[in-house]
TrEMBL record, chain A:
It comes from the Bacteria. This is Oxygen tolerance. The keyword Membrane applies. Keywords: Membrane, Transmembrane, Transmembrane helix. The lineage of its organism: Bacteria, Pseudomonadati, Bacteroidota, Flavobacteriia, Flavobacteriales.
TrEMBL record, chain B:
PANTHER family: MAGNESIUM-CHELATASE SUBUNIT CHLD, MOXR FAMILY PROTEIN. The keyword Cell membrane does not apply. The lineage of its organism: Bacteria, Pseudomonadati, Bacteroidota, Flavobacteriia, Flavobacteriales. It comes from the Bacteria. This is MoxR-like ATPase. It comes from Lutibacter agarilyticus. GO terms for molecular function: ATP binding; ATP hydrolysis activity.
C-alpha cells in the first residue's frame, strides 16, 4: 500500500511538472513529397524575454529551412513559424529545439518527418520535339543605346527648322508703306495698262475704277467706302465736309457722285457708255483722288496740358 | 458662282417697268389721303403685294395697320377681310367649314374670311398653334381644302399679320419655321409729332379723304410679272448671298464676335425673299434694274425674323437688328 502511494505521488508530480511547460510545437504534416513544405510552428504561452531557436542547418541534415517567418504576437502567446522542406527522400529527424524564456531553456520534442519521392515513368511519357531557342522579351534597356543616336538627329532637325523659319521671317520682314494716294495712282496706271476698254470689258473696268476710288477714300479719309452704297458714301462725305474735316469742294463731290452713279449703271444695269465718256470718268477719278484731302491725325493732348486743367 | 448668260435688254425692261409702275405713285398718293406718315409701312405693303409675299407687322395698337391694308384693298379694288385672332378661334373660323343644309339634305361649304385678296390677321399670336398653322399653310399653298373640295385662292392674295410687342402674356409665339413664311417683318413706330398733329386735326374735323380705286387687280397681276423681269446683276446676287451667308458663318466675313450671338442664320427663303423684295423696291422706284441701295432698303425687313439670337445675345441686349447692321456694315458693296 505504501509503495502504491509513492507511485501515485510520483505520477501526480510528473503530471504537474508537464503542465507547467509553456512551450509547444505543432506541424501541419510529417509526410511530404520531395520539395513540398512543412509548416513547423513553435508556440510559447508565456511573457517576458523569449528567444526562439535558430534552426541550425547542420542539425537538420537534409532538411532545409525555406523561410523563418517573424514572431506572431498573440494575446498571452507567441508563435513562430518555420517553412521546412527536403529534396532527398528518406526519414529525417528534426532534433529537440530549445526556447529560452527569461534565459531559462525549455525543450521541444524531436520530430521525425518522412520525405517520399515522386515516381516518374519515362517510358510512358509522350515524346515532344526539341524546342527552339526562346528569345527574351525586349526591355527598355535593349534600346537605351539608340538614344545616343537620336540626340544628333534631333539636333540636325532643329538646326534645319531654325534656318527654314529664319528664312521665312526674313521674307515677311520688308513691308514697304506706300501712301494711299500713291497706291491709288499706281493702281490707276495699272488699270490703264490692262487695256480693258480695247477688250470691251467695260464692266470690269468700272468695277476696278470705283474700287480704286473707294479704297483710297477708305484708307486715307477713313470713311467705310467699300461697305457703303453710292448714296450712303456721298451722304457721308457731305456730312464730313460740312463738319469741315475734309474741305472738299462741292464740285468734286458732285463729280464723284456722277462717276459712282455712272459706274453703278455699268455694273448693275448693263449700261455701256461711249469711250470718251469712260475716259472722262477715268480722268475725273484721278482728279478726285488728287483733290481729296486726307484727315489730319489729331494731336494727343500733352500730359502737361492735362495736368494744367 | 454660276454664270447667268441670258442676254438682257435693259432699255426695254426699263421702259416696261416705267409703264407698269405708273400706278404706284397714284396708289401711294391715294393711301396718303387717309394715312398720315407710315411711309415705310406703305412701301412694305406694296413690296408684299408685288412680291407675292406676306407681311408680319409688329407695332403697338392704333398705328393704322388695319386702315392701311383696308385702304390698299379699296385702292386696288380687292376684297378685304379681317380676322381677329383669339385663344378660342378654330381653324374652321379662318378657312371655312361644311354646314348641313336641311333644305338640300346635304352639306354645303361655307367659305371662311381667308377667301379675300387682302387678309388682316390681327394679333396672330393670340390664337393657338393649330389656327396659326391653318392660316400659314394657306399662305404657303395659296389653296384651301374644305371637305373634299380644294379651292384656289384668288390672286393677289396678301396676308398682313400683326403682333403686339408689349402684351406677351397668354400668347402663342409663332415658331421660327412659321415666321420664315412671311416675306417681310416690318416694325412700325409711332408717327412723328408733326404727323400726329395732322392725324389729330383730320380726325377732329373729319377731313380724311375718300379712297378711290386707282388700280385694278389685273394691273397688280401685270405688275407682279413685270417685277420678275427687273434685272438683277450677278454682282447684286453675290452681294445678297454674302449678306445671307454672313448670318450663317459670320466668322468667314470677319465678324467673329457675332458667332456666339447668332443661334441660326437665315434660311434659303431669306435669300429668295431678299432678292424678290429688292426687285420690288426697284420697281416701286420705277427702275428696271436692282442696285445695292435696293438691297439695303429691304434687308432689315427681310432678315429680322430670320436670324435667331442666342441667350448670350439676349443677355447683352443685342437684337437681330443690331446683327443685321453689323453685317451690312461689314459686307463689301459691289
Amino acid at each position: 500500500m505504501k509503495k502504491f502511494l509513492v507511485y501515485i505521488v510520483c505520477f501526480v508530480s510528473w503530471v504537474g511538472f508537464s503542465q507547467e511547460n509553456p512551450v509547444s510545437m505543432e506541424v501541419d504534416t510529417t509526410n511530404i513529397k520531395i520539395g513540398e513544405q512543412i509548416q513547423y510552428k513553435i508556440s510559447v504561452a508565456a511573457s517576458g524575454d523569449i528567444m526562439f531557436p535558430k534552426l541550425n542547418l547542420d542539425s537538420l541534415g537534409k532538411v532545409e529551412v525555406v523561410e523563418m517567418l517573424p514572431v506572431d504576437t498573440l494575446k498571452n502567446r507567441f508563435e513562430k513559424r518555420y517553412l521546412l522542406t527536403s529534396f532527398d527522400s528518406g526519414k529525417y529527424l528534426i532534433p529537440k529545439q530549445s526556447v529560452l524564456i527569461n534565459n531559462k531553456p525549455f525543450l521541444i520534442d524531436s520530430l521525425l518527418i518522412n520525405v517520399t519521392t515522386v515516381k516518374v515513368d519515362t517510358t510512358k511519357q509522350k515524346m515532344f520535339p526539341i524546342k527552339s531557342i526562346q528569345r527574351e522579351p525586349k526591355t527598355f534597356d535593349d534600346y537605351k543605346h539608340l538614344f545616343w543616336w537620336l540626340i544628333p538627329i534631333f539636333l540636325i532637325i532643329a538646326v534645319i527648322l531654325y534656318f527654314v523659319f529664319r528664312k521665312k521671317v526674313k521674307k515677311a520682314a520688308p513691308v514697304v508703306y506706300v501712301e494711299p494716294i500713291q497706291e491709288a495712282l499706281q493702281r490707276l496706271k495699272e488699270l490703264d495698262e490692262k487695256e480693258l476698254l480695247k477688250q470691251n470689258k467695260v464692266k470690269i473696268y468700272y468695277s476696278e475704277l470705283t474700287d480704286i476710288v473707294r479704297t483710297y477714300i477708305e484708307k486715307d479719309i477713313k470713311i467705310p467706302a467699300l461697305e457703303s452704297t453710292t448714296n450712303e458714301l456721298i451722304e457721308t462725305i457731305n456730312d464730313f465736309n460740312e463738319s469741315s474735316k475734309l474741305g472738299i469742294s462741292k464740285e468734286t463731290i458732285a463729280e464723284l457722285k456722277e462717276v459712282l452713279q455712272s459706274a453703278d449703271l455699268v455694273k448693275f444695269a448693263k449700261s455701256k457708255p461711249i469711250v470718251e465718256e469712260i475716259r472722262g470718268h477715268r480722268n475725273i477719278s484721278e482728279r478726285i483722288l488728287q483733290s481729296l484731302k486726307p484727315v489730319k491725325e489729331e494731336e494727343p493732348i500733352k500730359e502737361e496740358e492735362k495736368d494744367g486743367e | 458662282m454660276i454664270e447667268n448668260n441670258v442676254s438682257v435688254d435693259i432699255k426695254a425692261i426699263n421702259e416696261k417697268i416705267e409703264k407698269e409702275s405708273a400706278f404706284v405713285d397714284l396708289l401711294v398718293m391715294e393711301m396718303n389721303k387717309v394715312i398720315v406718315g407710315q411711309k415705310h409701312m406703305i412701301e412694305r405693303l406694296l413690296i408684299g403685294l408685288l412680291g407675292n409675299g406676306h407681311i408680319l407687322l409688329e407695332g403697338v395698337p392704333g398705328l393704322a395697320k388695319t386702315l392701311a391694308i383696308n385702304t390698299l384693298a379699296k385702292a386696288v379694288q380687292g376684297d378685304f377681310s379681317r380676322i381677329q385672332f383669339t385663344p378660342d378661334l378654330l381653324p374652321a373660323d379662318v378657312v371655312g367649314t361644311m354646314i348641313y343644309s336641311v333644305k338640300d339634305n346635304d352639306f354645303t361649304i361655307k367659305k371662311g374670311p381667308i377667301f379675300a385678296n387682302f387678309v388682316l390677321a390681327d394679333e396672330i399670336n393670340r390664337a393657338p398653334a393649330k389656327v396659326q398653322s391653318a392660316l400659314l399653310e394657306a399662305m404657303q399653298e395659296r389653296q384651301i381644302t374644305i371637305g373634299d373640295t380644294t379651292f384656289k385662292l384668288d390672286e393677289p392674295f396678301l396676308v398682313m399679320a400683326t403682333q403686339n410687342p408689349v402684351e406677351q402674356e397668354g400668347t402663342y409665339p409663332l415658331p421660327e419655321a412659321q415666321v420664315d413664311r412671311f416675306m417681310l417683318k416690318t416694325v412700325i413706330d409711332y408717327p412723328k409729332i408733326a404727323e400726329e398733329q395732322l392725324i389729330m386735326r383730320a380726325n377732329l374735323s373729319g377731313s380724311f379723304g375718300t379712297v378711290n380705286a386707282v388700280a385694278s387687280i389685273e394691273q397688280i397681276n401685270r405688275a407682279r410679272s413685270a417685277v420678275k423681269e427687273v434685272y438683277m446683276d450677278e454682282k447684286i446676287e453675290k452681294y445678297i448671298l454674302d449678306i445671307i451667308f454672313a448670318t450663317r458663318y459670320p466668322e468667314k466675313y470677319n465678324l467673329p464676335d457675332l458667332k456666339g450671338l447668332i443661334s441660326f442664320g437665315s434660311s434659303p427663303r431669306g435669300s429668295i425673299n431678299l432678292a424678290m423684295a429688292a426687285k420690288c423696291y426697284a420697281f416701286i422706284k420705277r427702275r428696271g434694274y436692282v442696285i445695292p441701295e435696293d438691297v439695303r432698303a429691304v434687308v432689315h425687313d427681310v432678315l429680322r425674323h430670320r436670324i435667331g439670337i442666342t441667350y448670350e445675345a439676349e443677355a447683352e441686349n443685342v437684337t437681330s437688328e443690331d446683327i443685321i447692321n453689323q453685317i451690312v456694315n461689314q459686307v463689301e458693296v459691289p
